[in-house]
Design goal:
This protein is of the alpha/beta class. It has helices spanning about 40-50, 65-70, 100-115, and strands spanning about 1-15, 20-25, 25-30, 55, 60-65, 70-75, 120, 130-145. Strands 1, 2, 3, 6, 7 and 8 form a six-stranded mixed β-sheet that branches. A two-stranded antiparallel ribbon has the order 4-5. The radius of gyration is 15 Å and the shape is globular.
């Protein structure tokens, strides 16, 4: 499971011109799932996102978590995080999980994040989405939890 985290001043998702999700300060989370991912990866990453110290304290040091600052999360499914671009000019998505596997895990990831106390909004799985954001910092991090073997 992969998460591209962007610390944001705000973010929103539109589908067919309608805003379906909007957050204030917090994180935009683009989430990709591969075939072998399970709830264990979702749980690990939800805990990591909630507790990761990426917000400044009074001294300007990244020392506060999403929970500490009362930030929100916007979770957007992003199968293209598993693109393989090593050969040719067209990405291959063979490592991205099929929708029937990916969608429940992304939903579970969002639910686990909410259980940690983070207010969560969601994009629409499988829809063509327009994602807008104001990256704060900018702070952009790649989080990954490979399936434990």
């Amino acid at each position: 499971m992969r998460v591209l985290l962007q610390r944001v001043a705000w973010a929103q998702v539109e589908v067919t011109g309608e805003v379906i999700a909007r957050i204030g300060p917090g994180v935009l989370l683009l989430v990709g799932v591969t075939h072998t991912d399970t709830e264990a990866e979702a749980a690990y990453l939800a805990r990591k996102v909630a507790q990761l110290r990426i917000f400044e304290d009074d001294a300007g040091k990244m020392n506060r978590s999403l929970l500490d600052v009362g930030g929100e999360a916007l979770v957007v499914s992003q199968f293209t995080l598993y693109a393989d671009t090593r050969k040719g000019r067209r990405p291959s998505f063979v490592h991205a999980a099929r929708p029937e596997h990916a969608e429940p895990l992304i939903q579970r990831f969002a639910a686990l994040l909410a259980q940690h106390g983070v207010p969560v909004q969601m994009g629409r799985f499988g829809a063509h989405m327009v994602v807008s954001l104001a990256n704060d910092g900018p702070v952009t991090l790649w989080l990954e939890r490979e399936h434990a073997t």
